[in-house]
């Protein structure tokens, strides 16, 4: 009988001695991120509306003293320290007729240059006026382009320059219309009356 008792004890011991297979516990990797909150910034001393109004006041002041295109005025405001958005807002809300500014710019340019229409267009566009604004300025400003051609002819002609060479230079080199160049050449050295 001992034998029978030994078998259950052996079975019991063997069950206790050998570990039963336990499925592995799945490991979960815990990732922690350190989130650093950005420091709360103090509000700017002025609101956006205040800076826009200040930009508008400055735009009015600048535009009353000089002739600007919209682009030229915006650039000037930016160079004075206004943000691009505030400068754009000020220019858009100025209520200026940029076509009339282009006309005024042509009159001003004509005081200091002997420009042809083509040269006026070029100078206005370089000053920031759009093609349409520059075209409007040239078409609506009263400028005697024949007189400008004559002044240019006087400035560029030499003693030995043939009239056709001068005419060609006025048209091709300076942008005067053929009839303006013809008038200038004819009036450069008017034939004396008898």
UniProtKB/TrEMBL annotation:
Putative host cell surface-exposed lipoprotein Ltp-like HTH region domain sequence ranges: 97-140, 144-188
Lineage, opening ranks: Bacteria, Bacillati, Actinomycetota, Actinomycetes, Mycobacteriales
Source organism: Corynebacterium nasicanis
Pfam families reported for this sequence: Lipoprotein_Ltp
Signal peptide: 1-19
InterPro entries membership: Ltp-like_HTH, WH-like_DNA-bd_sf
Protein name: Ltp family lipoprotein
Coiled coil: none
UniProt keyword terms in alphabetical order: Lipoprotein, Signal
């Amino acid at each position: 009988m001992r034998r029978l008792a030994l078998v259950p004890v052996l079975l019991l011991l063997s069950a206790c001695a050998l570990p039963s297979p336990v499925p592995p516990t799945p490991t979960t990797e815990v990732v922690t991120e350190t989130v650093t909150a950005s420091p709360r910034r103090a509000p700017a001393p002025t609101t956006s509306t205040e800076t826009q109004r200040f930009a508008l006041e400055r735009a009015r002041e600048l535009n009353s003293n000089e002739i600007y295109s919209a682009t030229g005025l915006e650039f000037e405001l930016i160079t004075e320290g206004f943000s691009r958005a505030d400068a754009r807002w000020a220019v858009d809300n100025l209520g200026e007729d940029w076509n009339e500014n282009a006309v005024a710019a042509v009159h001003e340019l004509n005081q200091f240059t002997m420009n042809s229409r083509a040269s006026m267009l070029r100078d206005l566009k370089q000053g920031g006026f759009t093609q349409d604004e520059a075209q409007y300025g040239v078409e609506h400003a009263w400028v005697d382009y024949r007189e400008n051609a004559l002044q240019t002819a006087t400035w560029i002609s030499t003693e030995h320059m043939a009239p056709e060479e001068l005419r060609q230079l006025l048209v091709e080199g300076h942008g005067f219309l053929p009839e303006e160049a013809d008038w200038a050449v004819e009036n450069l050295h008017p034939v004396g009356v008898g």
